[in-house]
Amino acid sequence: MLLVFALIYNLSVTSLDISDAFLMVPQTDEMYVEISQGKSETHWRLLRCLPGQRNGALKWHQHFASICESAGLVPFPGSPTVMRHKQVCLCERPCGRHSPSCLPGDVEWFKSTIGATLKMKVDGPHLPASEEQLM
């Protein structure tokens, strides 16, 4: 859907990958893991979500949505995984990977606001018909 918007409105497409996305999310429930070391066992209390944690994707979604909403992005009606900013910037947000379609200057805004609290790898912005490869 976002690629169609980019083509219609001549917007750039950018690929963002948030490093260690789940590890950025605080645990909201008290959770412990048991670690066996030979004959002894140790219990650790988790302070952050782990990749593969059953509710980790939901907690990441809620955490990232709160960061985006505090920066002024609004969930798109009918699809909470798409957010918009000033009718121009759309951001799809599956677990840790994002594809904003926006004006090239808005990518810098996104990196300086959302990227201020998260470590991101950025590929783009790429304009339609630029013949650049999006990773």
Number of helices: 3
**Widest beta sheet: strand line-up:** 4-5-6-7-1-8
Oligomer: single chain
Can you tell me the overall shape? elongated
Instruction: Give helix % range.
Output: 10-25%
The tally of strands reads: 8
Structural class: alpha+beta
Spell out the helices and strands N to C.
HEEEHEEEEHE
Layout: helices, strands, pairs:
Elements: H1 2-9, E1 12-18, E2 32-37, E3 40-45, H2 56-70, E4 74-76, E5 79-85, E6 89-92, E7 97-102, H3 104-113, E8 120-126
Q: Could you characterize the architecture of this molecule?
A:
There is one protein chain. The protein is an alpha+beta fold. The chain has one domain. The mean pLDDT is 78. The chain is elongated and about 60 Å long. Helix content is 24%, strand content 34%.
